[in-house]
Write a structure and sequence with these properties.
Blueprint (H helix, E strand, L loop, with lengths): L14 E5 L6 E2 L2 E2 L3 H15 L3 E5 L17 H11 L3 E4 L6 H5 L6 E4 L6 H4 L10 H23 L4 E4 L24 E3 L1 H15 L5 E5 L8 H7 L5 E4 L3 H8 L14 H14 L2 E3 L4 E4 L8 E4 L8 E5 L1 H12 L3 E5 L12 H15 L3 E4 L3 H9 L7 E2 L3 H9 L4 H4 L5
Parallel strand pairs: 1-4, 1-7, 4-6, 5-6, 7-8, 9-10, 9-15, 10-11, 15-16, 16-17
Antiparallel strand pairs: 2-3, 12-13, 12-14
């Protein structure tokens, strides 16, 4: 982690513009899970305890970008944060028109901006409409880039210091996550403590992991993790594959996969990765048995089959022998990174594989190793298993952690000030 953090700067009397990830589930105005808000509290409290004031900005959900939408307002989050901090949290109903409120802040005070995604310029995306010429599309992209720069410049004026503590959006080059740094006029752009923790854990795992190093990849599609597989094969000692993506690999080996999810257009890639694993001396583990179903349904008929799925059946989870095989490989590891479930764990009949792997990964930390859960459905599975507190680190960013594992540069990190 070669980026400056909040610890590296004097915060007394400074207004800190902080990008947080408050993209929390809200139903009827009530926050259903405040994990992301809790995750930002150490950085927020540190600024306030050290004589600074705070302007917080975040997105929430996927609004249209055409202005205010009640269902995506951050006001309930501001009210919830006020309770957690035990002090008022001011609210700016328009993130692009809050300069007066920001400048009026006194040390120890907090202002939260309304959803940055109420402006299309936050994401800066442009789609080419049907019938649009290349020149028109180019002009539209240029106009959007200009609008994004203008929004970023407005946001930058709210703070004397910029802090990014939103790892979950660090892979996006949005106005509030990366572009804003261009307009901070030389002021420090630092990482918050949550961002620092994410980069520390993921950086060590992909840079200088304690060995043996095992990675577990699951989820539905190989195509979602093309670059991750290739990148990890250059670093891990063991690569464990489960979930729907395993059936593309099994098919590539010549096995029958029945009606299982299989990306035929990725078979050559899977064969290439199998050969690459052999060349690099990486142990690549695939299911040796599977829980097959006669349909994709929670009440489907099921049976345990080997590494061939009968016609008319589909694999929806790894089988008991595979759980033993994977658990044995995990038990011998000092570093484990896990991204993606082993099956359709949301349905009880197909949850045993994911929860079996969960139990194995939970033992790694107890044995002095490091276990990192890489976001998305893996986090849901770990929480559902009740073993979350037995993991070394649970990432707050699914897409960001995946791109980090791919070896990609994250715009929200690259924009920060080097130490």
């Amino acid at each position: 982690m070669n980026k400056q953090t909040l610890r590296d700067i004097d915060l007394k009397g400074k207004r800190v513009l902080m990008r947080v990830d408050f993209n929390v589930p809200i139903k009827e105005g009530v926050i259903r899970d405040d994990t992301r808000v809790q995750g930002a509290l150490p950085s927020i409290k540190y600024v306030l305890d050290n004589g600074g004031s705070l302007v917080l900005m975040s997105h929430l959900g996927r609004p249209s970008g055409k202005g205010y939408e009640a269902d995506f307002s951050l006001k309930p989050v501001a009210e919830h944060l006020s309770k957690l901090l035990g002090k008022p949290v001011q609210f700016a109903p328009d993130c692009a028109d809050a300069l007066a409120q920001a400048k009026a802040l006194k040390p120890g005070e907090v202002l939260m901006l309304e959803n940055t995604r109420f402006y299309k310029a936050e994401e800066g995306k442009v789609k080419k409409a049907e019938g649009m010429s290349d020149d028109e599309y180019k002009a539209k992209k240029a106009a959007m880039k200009q609008a994004q720069a203008e929004l970023a410049e407005k946001l930058a004026a709210y703070g004397d210091v910029y802090c990014n503590d939103a790892f979950g959006t660090a892979h996006r080059a949005h106005a509030s996550t990366a572009v804003v740094c261009k307009y901070m006029k030389g002021a420090p752009c630092v990482a918050g403590f949550l961002m620092e923790k994410e980069l520390d854990y993921l950086g060590r795992a992909t840079g200088t992991p304690e060995r043996p190093f095992a990675a577990i990849l699951g989820g539905a599609k190989v195509s979602d993790k093309l670059a991750v597989v290739r990148n990890l094969l250059g670093n891990v000692d063991t690569l464990i594959i489960g979930g729907g993506m395993a059936y593309t690999f099994l098919k590539a080996q010549g096995h029958e996969v029945g009606n299982s999810l299989c990306e035929v257009d990725q078979l050559d890639y899977a064969r290439e990765m199998i050969e690459l694993a052999k060349t690099r001396g990486v142990k690549l583990l695939l299911p040796v048995d599977n829980v097959a179903a006669d349909k994709f349904d929670a009440e489907a008929n099921t049976k345990v089959v080997g590494d061939d799925i009968p016609a008319g059946w589909m694999g929806l989870d790894i089988g008991p022998e595979t759980v033993k095989l994977y658990a044995s490989a995990i038990a011998g590891a000092k570093t484990v990174v896990w991204n993606g479930p082993m099956g359709c764990f949301e349905m009880p009949k197909f949850a045993a594989g994911t929860f079996g792997v969960c139990k194995a990964v939970a033992k790694v930390k107890a044995q002095g190793g490091v276990s990192i859960i890489g976001g998305g459905d893996s986090v849901s599975a770990v929480k559902k298993s009740g073993l979350a507190d037995q993991m070394s680190h649970i990432s707050t960013g699914g897409g960001a952690s995946l791109e980090f594992l791919e070896g990609k540069e994250l715009p929200g990190v690259a924009a920060l000030t080097d130490k």
